[in-house]
Design goal:
Elements (H helix, E strand, L loop, with lengths): L10 H20 L3 H7 L2 H5 L34 E4 L5 E3 L4 E9 L2 E9 L2 E6 L1 E3 L6 E2 L4 E5 L10 E8 L2 E3 L22
Antiparallel strand pairs: 1-9, 2-8, 3-4, 3-7, 4-5, 5-9, 6-8, 9-10
């Protein structure tokens, strides 16, 4: 097994590497599947599971326009998910295998919720659902199209939420690393 030197590595990177190593070991012991690793991992690791081959980005783009913002408590303000830019009408896909738990309107916005098993649930908001509750879906299957609602129409996005054992968690650790935007010099900005 390869050893990592963490002295020169930022603490967050060291934590992500440690979690990835723990998940890989759990997968090997539990039969090699993400669901088996999810069951075998310690609860603290389950909530922060880094995923090399877990979820896929729901719109194909790996850009995040608004990250998770943890609330102070269950009823406090926060951003219980992350937003990815997406054009109205763009395809939204299942981030992982599962069963559609809900597909319909919530507070006037279209939502698709997928139960991935073992207490893990993903939610896509705002979408026009193309699936119904009870439908089995596989990772990458189209489940809806992006609609206006969560983000303003002039800057549309898709909101991806995650719940683990009924509590909202940051979806980012379940996804491949986001792509970094290319920053242009101020003189090149046309906006």
């Amino acid at each position: 097994m390869k050893r990592f030197r963490t002295a020169a590595v930022p603490p967050l990177v060291a934590l992500v590497v440690a979690v990835a190593v723990a998940v890989t070991a759990a997968r090997a012991q539990a039969g090699g599947t993400p669901a088996a690793a999810h069951r075998a991992a310690e609860p603290a690791v389950r909530a922060t599971r880094a995923s090399a081959d877990g979820w896929v980005w729901p719109t194909g783009t790996r850009v995040m326009v608004r990250p998770w913002e943890a609330p102070a408590d269950d009823y406090a303000a926060g951003h219980r998910g992350l937003d990815v830019p997406a054009a109205i009408g763009a395809t939204a896909v299942a981030v992982d295998d599962g069963t559609v738990a809900f597909a319909g309107a919530v507070a006037g916005r279209g939502v698709v919720t997928i139960d991935h098993g073992d207490g893990l649930v993903s939610t896509l908001d705002s979408v026009s659902p193309l699936v119904a509750a009870g439908d089995p879906v596989e990772q990458g299957d189209t489940v809806g199209t992006v609609s206006a609602g969560h983000c303003p129409p002039n800057a549309p996005c898709l909101h991806l939420g995650a719940r683990l054992d009924g509590r909202y968690v940051d979806p980012a650790p379940y996804l491949p690393t986001p792509a970094w935007p290319i920053l242009l010099p101020e003189a090149a900005w046309t906006g």
